[in-house]
Amino acid sequence: MNIRATLPLLLLLSTICAAQSSLSAAEAKNHIGEKATVCGEVASTHYAAKTKGSPTFINLDKPYPNQIFTVLIWGSDRGKFGNPDQSYMGKHICATGTIKDFRGVAEIVAYEPSQIAVR
User: Fold this and answer.
1) What is the CATH number of domain 23-118?
2) For residue 39, which of 76, 92, 94, 103 is within the disulfide window of CB 3.0 to 4.6 Å?
3) Is the separation of the CB atoms in 97 and 112 below 8 Å?
């Protein structure tokens, strides 16, 4: 095959693969235990400074208490993110990591800012 002919095909295939590599917040519950990228609109955030571990909760697509997907940042890692509860609010983000189930809600724990991208 001619390289000029295959290059556009390879670019198209890589674009399709990249588009399929992320999940919506609603799809995440079907991928517990998998490493994936989950994207959605930040619907609510909460920094629980007085709770054990000082977690920050970033809920995608639906706000608490009806959240369907949460990005969790523990207090020990929060300084790396600045003020994530404020800086991500209302933005479309993608979080990459292992999807876990916490009390029926899918979540990814973000340890590093590189795990969260604003889109």
Assistant:
1) 2.40.50.140
2) 94
3) no
Domain residue ranges of the chain, discontinuous segments joined by +: 23-118
**Do 37 and 28 meet the contact criterion of CB atoms below 8 Å apart?**
no
pLDDT, tens digit, 9 for 90 and up, residues 38-96 = 999 999 999 999 999 999 999 999 999 999 999 999 999 999 999 999 999 999 999 99
CA atoms of 81 and 112, how far apart (whole Å): 8
